[in-house]
Amino acid sequence: MDGVGPLVVILFFFGLAGGVVGRIKGSSFFTWFLISFCVPFIGLLTAVLYRFDNQELRRQCPYCRRVVKLHDAVCMSCGTELEFPDAAIASEAAMSGRS
Ligand SMILES: [Zn+2]
Questions:
Q1: pTM (2 d.p.)
Q2: 81 CA to middle of ligand 1, Å?
Q3: Cα–ligand 1 centroid distance for 13 (angstroms)
């Protein structure tokens, strides 16, 4: 039995860390818990580095008022070319995470 217990504990904490990171980034806790538990180092690293869509800064199209991603050069709705904005809108995750 010796040697197996500590490993499971370590894997559990990797899973926990990955799950928390995934949850913070607006994804599923359980999904990232499983990924980090099964492939500890790579799974956790992926959770940390993974760019979740709802974390990106946004801005509003000055013509049609549609909210688009900050890095979009052209409005997805009306096709207007967009200058880099003076002010960005906080990401969806930042807005919803503060309730
Ligand atoms: Zn537009």
A1: 0.51
A2: 8
A3: 45
